[in-house]
Amino acid sequence: MKADAAVQGPVLAIRASGHRPTRAGQVRRTALKFLAPAGILFLILIANPLLRVLWDSLHIVNLVNPSVTGFAGWDNYRTVWEDGDFLPALGNTAIWTGLSVAGEYALGLASAVALAQPVRFRAIFRGVIIIPWVIPIAVAGLNWTWMLTPDYGILNVWMVDLGLLDRPYPWLGQIDTALLTVTFVNIWRSYPFYTISLLAALQAIPRELHEAAAVDGAGAWRRFRVITLPHLRTVSLTLIFIHIIWTAINFDFIWVMTEGGPLNASETLPIMIYRYAMQDFDVGAACALASLSMAFMACLFFVYYYGVARRRAA
């Protein structure tokens, strides 16, 4: 009996320990409980509308006449592709996104490096530079529209007084300058986000690295290229990737300032989606174009994700 009890004791202990959750399992279950509300909101607010867009892109959906329904197959995508405004809008989207992101990064990096230097009133400059980014897009767009108006715009008045222009110029009313003008305004508003992000990364670089490089005879440009830029790589790639998506799908700025005009010179894909849905009432075509845009953004995400994963593995 004593031998049996001696054997049963460890067996019961092993069984008990087998049913007892490990610490890693407890942490995992606790994490899932905290993530559950966010997961539910994701399904309701993102996954459900996304699936609805994909579904409507393959069906006939009309806002004016809801009774007109049916399976459209690839007809909505064919409508988008055969639209004469699609390729120009795609080109405008590429120009708008590329110039905006490049300008924002260049200006943000320059201002971040300047604000990292021990200059007087640096704290004030750091507070003031964030002002354009906190201004709502609608307010910023309307203000710049008024300042650029050829009749009473203050910027046109100043440029005429300084001799830069012979007469006021309709920056937002000309085919050649409308998109570039809106792009400039978007850069003005968005670059402070780059500034504060890159400034935080600059402050995390150990000063000993720069001091050691200076002792070895490295100049300012070489220290910036060899030490500063590599430390900013992760933050820079993240900022650029996020802003490519944000800028490509941006609707507010262009709509507030030009509504895609003149003559669709500043029309981008989000403006085109709006016209399909709210002016032509063709929700199916709008969803088809939105699906194409999402597919392109997904491709960018996977390229970025696998690029980061490969770099970490190396």
UniProtKB/TrEMBL annotation:
Keyword match Zinc: no
Membrane topology, record value: Multi-pass membrane protein
Keyword line: Cell membrane, Membrane, Sugar transport, Transmembrane, Transmembrane helix, Transport
UniProt-listed Gene3D superfamilies: MetI-like (1.10.3720.10)
Membrane spanning residue stretches: 34-55, 94-116, 128-149, 169-188, 232-256, 283-306
Organism superkingdom: Bacteria
Keyword Nucleotide-binding belongs to the record: no
Pfam family, any one: BPD_transp_1
Residue ranges constituting the ABC transmembrane type-1 domain according to the UniProt record: 90-302
Cell compartment(s), UniProt: Cell membrane
Family statement: Belongs to the binding-protein-dependent transport system permease family.
Protein name: Multiple sugar transport system permease protein
Organism of provenance: Inquilinus ginsengisoli
